[in-house]
Amino acid sequence: MMPAPARPDFAELFTPKLVTVFREGYGLAGLRADAIAGLTVAIVALPLSMAIAIASGVGPERGLYTAIVGGFIVSLLGGSRFQIGGPAGAFIVLVAATVARHGVEGLLLATMMSGVFLLAIGYLRLGTYIKYIPYPVTVGFTAGIGVIIFASQLRDLFGLTLAGAEPGALLEKLPALWAAAGTASPAAIGIAAMTIALIVGLKRFRPGWPGMLVAVAAASVAAFAFALPVETIGSRFGGIPRSLPMPALPNLDPELVKAVLPDAISFALLGAIESLLSAVVADGMTGRRHRSNCELVAQGFANIGSALFGGICVTGTIARTATNVRAGARGPVSGMLHSTFLLAFMLVAAPLAAYIPLAALAGVLATVAWNMIEKDAFAAIARTSRGDALVLAVTLLLVVFRDLTEGIVVGFVLGSLLFIDRMAKSVSTDVHVPQVSEDVADTPGDAAYDGRAASDPDTVVYRISGAFFFGTAATVGSVLDRIADRRKNFVLDCSAVPFLDTTALNVIEGAARKARHSGVRFVIAGASPEVRRMLTAHGLKEPEVEFAGSVGEAGR
Q1: CA separation (Å) from 382 to 219, 392, 409?
Q2: What are the residue boundaries of the STAS domain, all occurrences included (predicted)?
Q3: Count of CB atoms within 10 A of residue 234's CB?
Q4: Angle CA(133)–CA(10)–CA(285) in degrees, nearest 5?
Q5: Could you tell me the end-to-end alpha-carbon distance of the chain, in angstroms, rounded to an integer?
Q6: Nearest-angstrom CA–CA distance, 479 and 180
Q7: Side-chain half-sphere of 280: how many Cα atoms within 13 Å?
Q8: Which residues, at least 6 apart from 133, have a Cβ–Cβ distance to it below 8 Å?
Q9: What is the longest distance spanned by two Cα atoms in the chain?
Q10: Which domains are delineated in the chain?
């Protein structure tokens, strides 16, 4: 038997991929490739970071702070070679709601607390379990976020003027926007349409060009050249600073800590899921493997660092990470350089940002929202499984109309119940004699499951196939309860049982107890070393039960 692989030690699990890349050998060719990839990603991240921050209810500079500080730390300490960290569209709703309830100070505190939670999740090695979110849940969740992001941009897409504050809930937002339809600005609509058309057109005909940056730059030039009456970053926010602020702790008032605790937990859970999904995408594109717990630790430090510099939530971003891979990145240096380039852009070109129309940034986010809805995945899931389609639909509707966290939790529970039902149906029990002592008519399919074992008329053999756990315990237990009392030997064949839990162990223990009271010899045959270890630990030991390597050995 092959020895079990040694469990990785702490240092191995939490060594950043940057160290691994340097150990493998890193030269000028790698640096050149990472510099090109980092510049490419920075060009994509520049307008997107500002757009996400504005949609989140804060100033555009906070999106840049997040990408610069948080993105640098994610690449410096992360467990993925290609992960790009920064502000993500998935957080827009949560961040905006936190700002509305607790202000920017509450947001910064919640961001820092989420970083602490991510550190705990990573160091406790819980990252492996976060990856078990069912695929229909992630598809429905992502699509729901896309719908919410698009709805949040309708005001700027059409240049609407609302009488009061824009409602957050979708069912309240849409009537308010419809009531303001008469204030729509043709100039804003034209700028937004131009931005979307350029992004879509360049992606199709010039995929190597930075479509978002080109579209935003063209929209800004058009708005300035024709003096269009559209709202800009300068008119709403007064521009962006030309440097990073000094680091400072957020307000640590105990009452505020208590108030933002639910938001911090939501940030941490969503950040963990989003980051690990992004790392898995990068693995699929490159054939590499990330370290999930190391990645979560990096995300934790990144969120703490972002909050210290006035940034918002940091997470791994799928679109920017994929761009990084396609641009030829060799390792985490590209992500660090992406943050450095963003800092350089802010230092040099900050005054120009004041001319960017908000309608153009809304157009950027509208395309992002559209791309977040995985149309092909919807169709594939609908064709494959009605149960998975139901999980997707419920998750999507709850995310859009109720709450992000509620959508994930309910979707995960439904997906788990669906899995349990499928696993329960996959287990089977075979017996080579009738399960009852009364005479019954012969029926098709009553052939002995094992002719050699059936040669002994005093022996009954039951064979369990599949995972034996709480979901299948009732089915198997009802079979085991019908032990033929007139038989002298009862053989439970576990050779096809890959796993059992404490509920299953309890069922087997009950059957063994009944056999012992009836004077029946109880033999467990073919159990793997792991299954036998669990049986022994539960108290099923010789001489109460006997163990045999196979059904054939059980009859000797």
Answers
A1: 39, 9, 21
A2: 449-556
A3: 15
A4: 45
A5: 25
A6: 67
A7: 15
A8: 273, 408, 412, 415
A9: 98
A10: 28-151+170-227+251-417 (no CATH), 428-436+449-554 (3.30.750.24)
Contact yes or no for 111/312 (Cβ under 8 A):
yes
pLDDT digits (tens, 9 = 90+) for 216-273: 999 999 999 999 999 999 888 887 888 899 999 998 999 999 999 999 999 998 899 8
Q: Which amino acid is at 470?
A: F
* pLDDT digits 0-9 by tens, 524-556: 888 888 888 888 888 888 878 888 888 877 665
pLDDT of residue 221: 95
Tell me the torsion sign for CA atoms 363, 367, 368, 372. positive
**Separation of alpha carbons 500 and 480, rounded Å:** 15
Helical axes 135-152 vs 170-179, angle rounded to 10°: 30
Handedness of CA 24, 28, 29, 31 (dihedral sign): positive
Of the candidates 491, 501, 551, 492, the residue with the CA atom closest to the CA atom of residue 530? 501
HSE-up of residue 426 (Cα within 13 Å, Cβ side): 14
∠ CA 169-175-176, rounded to 5°: 80
